[in-house]
Amino acid sequence: MRWWSDCTANWREKWSKVRSERNKARDEAKQLRSKLDSALKDANVYKREKQDLELQNEQLKKEIEKIHLLLLKHAGQFDSQIFEALGEDPLRDFTFSQNRDSPIKNCELQNGLGTDCDSTATSLLELDKDACIEEYILQGAVPRHIDYKDADRKNNDDSLTNGFDCKSERLSRKEDYDEEYIIQKLSMLQLRIEEATKTLQVEREEKMMLHRNIERLTGECQEAKEKCEELRQARQDAVRELLALQDQHQEEVQLIRADLQDEANSREGMDRRINDLRAELERLQTENAAEWGKRERLETEKLSLERENKKLRGELRDVHERLERKGRPLTNSDAELRQLQQELMDKNKEISELKHSQNKLKKMVQDKITELAHTVRRAEQYETEVKKLRNRVEELKRDLAVAEDELDTASNNIRKLQRTNDELQEQVDNFQVQLQHLHTRLRNCSSSSLFSHRGTRLTEDGSDEELNEY
């Protein structure tokens, strides 16, 4: 019984460990689920911010295209150095905010309004546009330290400078232009450019913050993957331990069943032995009854023989008395006496044989009585052992039912853990897919910005070639 209690104690201890590990895994799964929810919310926020940035980038591309169109319209007023410098413009990679107005838009509005005015107003607006572009170049859009590489380009530049000299003479003739208006316009453009640079700096910082957040999210996703792997490993260890416990439990159940089978076989043997003992007891009881009947019969015969012996002794005494009285001759009396003595000796022998047989029967009866008492005691012992075995079988059946219930609960808990782990794995996979979409969108955005940058450079090269031909 002690080994069974030790086995159940070890089994309960192992199940308590498995239950504690399961609770820990469940808590970690809840924490990971909360982290995944927060990460998904952050990813949605970043997605919205990214869409806003994409819209702002598209607006910026449109504004840059308008700037290049304006520059192409006024290409006769600048030399080839300006267009080469516009290819290296640092403001091209920046994004303007949605609520701010660009100076080029103001110039376009002024250009649209100037179509309805007279020729003097159109000349003033042309001068205003020229001043806007010159202010844009003076604020740092075009560097002045470009080296000339080709001799042909120098010749073309000389021709263009001659054209610019003519135009400057033509512009100097227009003395009615309001210089204060130009100064105010230049200051406004300066303020707008400063605001645009500030917004560009802020948006660049926001972009860096977004990249940091994406890196942090990727790190958290990696940690979630590692924790998921740890949970999977712990689940596999728990499953292996559970399988080992199930195997051990099955072995114990098989041992218990073998013990029960042995006990059932021993009980059947005991029942057969008890039945044999009962049959033998009944046989001994019948033999005892027969012996008692024989003993009573022998006692009755003994009593009858004793009565006959007494009667013969009385007759013998009577004969002796008669012989003494009659005084018969000795021959007849001796013969009769010998005959009577012979009969008496035969009777005595029979009586001694009967006594000897009676003593033997008494001994046999005493032995049978003691043997019967022993068999009765053995039968009682066997009955008590059978009762104990039946109680033990009932206890083993109850323990087996409890063990099967606990095994069912453990298997149900393992199925629940497996389902929760599968759900967590699906969430992690979805999160990975979202991160991959974010990375692909960022790559597409960067590639589109590079393509737009190259397109603007190609347009500038084309404008340079047209100017050279001109």
TrEMBL record:
Listed name of the protein: Coiled-coil domain-containing protein 102A
Transmembrane portions of the chain: none
Compositionally biased region (Acidic residues): 461-470
UniProt-annotated stretches for the region Disordered: 449-470
The keyword Coiled coil belongs to this UniProt entry's keyword annotation: yes
UniProt xrefs under SUPFAM superfamilies: Myosin rod fragments (SSF90257)
Swiss-Prot/TrEMBL keywords: Coiled coil
Residue ranges that the Swiss-Prot or TrEMBL entry lists as coiled coil: 22-70, 186-441
Keyword hit for Hydrolase: no
